[in-house]
User: Fold these one by one.
Assistant:
Number 1:
Amino acid sequence: MSDDSDKDSKTEEPTEKKLQDAAEKGNDPVSREVALFASLLALLVVLALLIKPAAARLLVLLQYMLDGAGQHRIGNGADVQALMTLSGTEVSLALLPIILVLTVFGLVSAFAQNMPRFVLSRIAPELSRINPLKGFGRVFGGKGLVTFLKAVLELTIVSVAVYMVLRSHEGLMVNLMFMRPTVMPEEILTMLLRVVAAVAAAMALIVAGDLVWTRITWRKDLRMTKQEIKDETKQAEGDPMVKARLRSIALDRARKRMMAQVPRATLVIANPTHYAIAIRYVREEGGAPIVVAKGQDLIALKIREIAAEAGIPVLEQKLLARSMYDLVEVDQAIPPEFYRAVAELIHFLSRKKTRASAI
C-alpha cells in the first residue's frame, strides 16, 4: 500500500542529476531486443558473405583428410598433434570471420544503447534477488505482464514473416526433393537467407517500439516527488540557512578588516550620525585619495568612534557624505567628481595643521 502511494506521489519528471546518478549506478535503459536484432543482422551477413567461403575451406579440409586417409602417418603422439594442429588451424581460419562478425555486432548493439560502465553494485550479491516473494512479483507484476505480451507479439510477428516467406517458396520446397544433391545447398541457403531477412525486417519494427517503450518506462521509474526535487535543489545550491550564516560571517570579517583600516585614514567625512566615509591621502604615496572604510548608522558611529580614539579629524559634510556613500567603494580611489570637494577638505586640514604647528 505504501509503495502504491509512493508511486502516486512521484509525479515530477526526473532531473538531469537524477538521470546521471542512475546511469552511474548502472541503471540505464536497455532493450534486450536490440541484442537479438543485432544477432539476426550478424547471421544475415554470415549467410550472405561468409558461409560459402567458410564451407569451401572446410570442404577442402575434409577432402584432404578423406582422400589421404591412408597416407597420414600416425605413429606417435607427435604425428597426432601435427594432424590436429593442421585441422584446428583450418577450422579456426574458417570460423574466425564468423566469430568476429558476431562479436562486432554484439558490441555495437551494446555500445549503441549506452556506454559501458563497470559498476560493482550491479554484481554485488543481494538477498532481495533470491527472495521468492519479490521474484513472484517481478514475474506476475505489471512489468512481467508487459514482457509476456511483448514476447507473444514478437512470436506472432516473426511467425507471420516466416510463414509468408515459406509460403512464397512452397514450390521450391517441393522441387528440392527432385534436385541434384549438388544444387540443394545453394537453394536451401538462398531460402534460409530470405527467411532470416524477413525475420530481421519484422524485428526492426519490434526493436524500434521496444526502444521507445524502454526509455519511457525508465524515465517513469525514475520520476521524483516534489519533495525530492526540493531536497535535490537545496543540496545543489546549498541550504539557505547555511548560506545566510556563511554570508553573515564573511560580512562580519570584512567589516572587521575595514574597521582595522580606520586609524590609517587622513580624515572622516560624516553626515552627523547616518553616514561616515574614512579617506586616506598621503602625498608621498601618490594617486587619488583612497576610501579605507565606509558605513551607515551603527557602523558610521563606530567609524567615528575609532577615528576619535586615533585622533583622526571628523568633518561633518552632510550632502558630500550622503553623495559619496552610494558611489565610493572600500579600498578604491574616490570617483573624479569628488576630487575637488575632498581636495578642499584636505587643504583645509593641512592649513589648520600648519597654523597649529606655528603656534
Number 2:
Amino acid sequence: MPAEVIYKIVPAELWRQAEAEGRFRGAPVDLADGYMHFSSSAQVRETARRHFAGQTDLLLVTVNAARLGAALKWEPSRGGDLFPHLYGDLPLSAAIGIVSLPLGDDGVHRFPEGLAS
C-alpha cells in the first residue's frame, strides 16, 4: 500500500528558488533522470546517507502523496524496493511540512523525532 506521505531532501537554496517560482521543478539529478526522486519514511535515512552524506543546509520536505495524483508512480529502484517518483513539477501546496535536516557531530543527518526508521 503506498504511503500517505513521502519525503524529499532538498538543498535549502533550491527550495527558496521554488518558493519564488511557485513550484519545485526538481534537483539536478531529478531533471537528468526525468522524474523527481522521493523516499518513504522507511527509505529516507538511507537516501540521506547514500546521496547527501556530509551535506549541510538541507531541508526535509514532507509531501502529501495523494495530492500528486497519477503523476506519482511507485517504481523499483535500489535492491528492488519501490520508490516514489513524480513525473512533473511538485506543487508547493502538496508540501505539508518543511524542516531543517542538520548534521550531527557524527556526520549523520538528524531526522525529526517520530519519523519511522
Number 3:
Amino acid sequence: MQNKVTQLFNIEYPIIQAGMIWNSGWRLASAVSNAGGLGILGAGSMYPEVLREHIIKCKKATNKPFGVNVPMLYPNINEIIDIIIEEGVKIVFTSAGNPKTHTAHLKEHGITVVHVVSSVKFALKAQDAGVDAVVAEGFEAGGHNGREETTTFTLIPMVKEKLNVPLIAAGGIANGRGMLAAMILGADGVQVGSRFVASEESSAHKAFKDSVVEANDGDTFLTLKELAPVRLLKNKFAEEVVELYKSNPSVEDLKELLGRARAKKGMFEGDMEEGELEIGQIAGLIHEIKPAAQIVEEMISEFNTAKAEINTL
C-alpha cells in the first residue's frame, strides 16, 4: 500500500502508532515498525537518558524506521532534541508547542518532522514552519487534546482543503473501517493511540489495559481545559475533578488536585482510583488485548474488506 505517508517514512502501511506517555516504549514501537507501520517512542514520560536507552533498544529490536514523539511543553526539551540527533533518529513527531522552535534545526540533521495539531489554523502554522507532514487530531482522541472540540470527521476535510503536505488523521481510529473513513475524508494515513494501549507490548500497567478493554461508550470525558485539555476514563480522580469544578476553582486549585505524576500513577503504576487514565472515546470499541502485529494485520485486512464493500453502495 504505497502513498504519500508510506513513501515519506519508508514503511509498508500508512499506520502510525501514537507516541503516548507511559505506553509507548521500545517494545511497542519496534513491534509496530516490524509489522509494517511506524512505531513511535513517547518521550513525554521519559527522562533524557531513559529516552536514549529506549532509542538504543529500539534500534536493536528493529531495522525498520521508527520515530520519537516530543511534547515541546516538557522540561529538558533541548537535551531530548540533542539525544535524538546524537542517536541518529530520523523521524520526530512534535506536539504541544510552536513548530517553528525546533523544526529547522531537526531538518538540518536530516530528520523528517511531523507536527500534531487540533485545528486548521495550527495545521497551516505547522506547514509554514516547514514540517514534512501534519497530524490532525480530533476531539475524540485520548490524552491531551485541542480546546476547539472539533471532531475528526469534521477536522480532516477542513484541514485537507487548506494543506499541501501529507495529512495524517488521529482521534477515534482503532480499526480498518475507521482508517478507511479517515482516508476517504482526505487523510493520507492514520495515527492510532488507544488501540495500541491495549496491546501486549504497551508499557502500560495491566490494570489500565484491562480498564480500556472494559470501557463502554460514554466512559471518557474531556476536562482540565484551564491547564491542558485531557480526555480521561471516569474514575475516583475524575469524580473529584467534576466535584471541584462545582466550586468554580482557580487554576491553582486545579493544579493542587492534579498534583505530580498523576498520569504515571494511573497508566504505568496501575492505580485505577487515584490515577489519571488517559484514553480516547474509541475505547468502547476495544475488547481484547492483542499483540501489536496482530492489531496492524487486522486493521489492514478490515481496511481492504471495507474498501471492497464500498463498490456495492
